[in-house]
# Entry
Amino acid sequence: SVTHKIEHLKSAVYEDQLPEHDLPEVAFIGRSNVGKSSLIKAILGEAPEARVRVSKTPGHTKVLNFFTVGKQLCLVDMPGYGFHMPEHYEKSVEGFLSSRKKLSRVIFLVDGTVGVTPTDVTGLNMMEEMSLPYIIVLTKIDKSKPAVLLKNFMSVRKYIDQLPACLQQPFLVSSLTGEGVELLQAFIAHVTGH
Ligand code: GDP
# Structure
């Protein structure tokens, strides 16, 4: 886990509320229940501040949350999207993605127990329209039988060819066992210049 000091910098909905800072940003996005909070917790480690703030409290998860990791980077927890995403959340996400000058990467989460869903496709299309660099991370890889995980992995591999802005190699993680988390941390350190 990360040994740097984790601080919750700000929560924001609208563009004029976004924090100003000099750190490179890495943002996490995925549909609700994809395993985003669990992965962010696994990446940030057991920092009490992170444990409190990355919560499932209604009204708190559907805003952008900014966490500084030492003087290295700023991790951004984006609202989990789904079928009932109110318009202002969509505006919030698109406002953020289109305005951040120091956004190094977006980490796009796909549920490894499910594979690519129509909701994921909507999000992936938005990423391609923004043409920001992003990666796909398959979550919960401990949960499926290998044959099922392979099928879901192949569904991503097949789809990824159509996503030019996406790194062609997806990452596989389990927040439960920690598998793949260190590799993802190393990737984040790499793209943020450390
Ligand atoms: P979020 O809505 O995207 O923030 O998803 P959560 O992190 O809250 O996870 C949704 C559900 O999946 C919860 O019941 C988690 O315990 C479970 N979950 C998340 N990550 C993993 C994982 O790596 N392995 C397993 N087996 N379950 C997970």
Observations:
- The chain has one domain: 6-191.
